Amino acid sequence: MIARLGVLFVCLGNICRSPTAEGVFRQVATRHGLISRLEIDSAGTGAWHIGSPPDRRSQAAALRRGIDLSRRRARQVADQDFVRFDYILAMDRANLAALSAMAPTRSAARVSLFLPFARDLGVDEVPDPYDGGPDGFEHVLELIAPAAEGLIQHVRGRLSSDGAQATR
Ligand code: 4NP
Q1: What is the CATH number of the domain that holds 64?
Q2: Which of 11, 16, 55, 86 is catalytic?
Q3: Number of domains observed in the structure of the chain
Q4: What is the arithmetic mean of pLDDT over 37-62?
Q5: Is residue 11 within 6 Å of ligand 1 at its C-beta?
Q6: 17 belongs to the catalytic site
Q7: Structural domain span for residue 81
Q8: Whose CA is closest to atom 14 on ligand 1?
Q9: Which residues contact 30 (CB under 8 A, 6 or more apart)?
Q10: Which of 47, 151, 157, 159 qualifies as a cystine partner to 117, CB 3.0-4.6 A?
């Protein structure tokens, strides 16, 4: 039986997409009664925004779904993340490539795209909303929400006592 799993969401700046994914997944994990079994965090592959709160537009879009991101502060992916987390989930291929380049050869973490956890979404990358209009931030949430639901079903299978649904 697996007692706990760690999930790290990763984008470029850690101020738009990955803090949103972290907040949505925390909300979903809480609803499923699994929050105490999960370590959930987010980070960026870039360093520009270290220490900054999430973008105001991401905060506003999340708050419309009852998710408060105001206390988050951006950080950069660190080597120890590949030990600390079981899943390191990238928002797009550029960040996946950056993570793959960083990953130590002995890392047991699963490094992959996040959106494929949603079934039938038709896209596998969350577009960077930073330089676009407000619709882009709502679109980020629309993509992340079903992927968070798919991910909770996946981790629930791994955390279940008999482990029968483990698919890793
Ligand atoms: P994120 O969005 O990767 O979803 O946090 C971005 C935020 C800032 C920048 C790029 C993407 N930037 O270039 O500063």
Answers
A1: 3.40.50.2300
A2: 11
A3: 1
A4: 98
A5: yes
A6: yes
A7: 5-158
A8: 13
A9: none
A10: 151
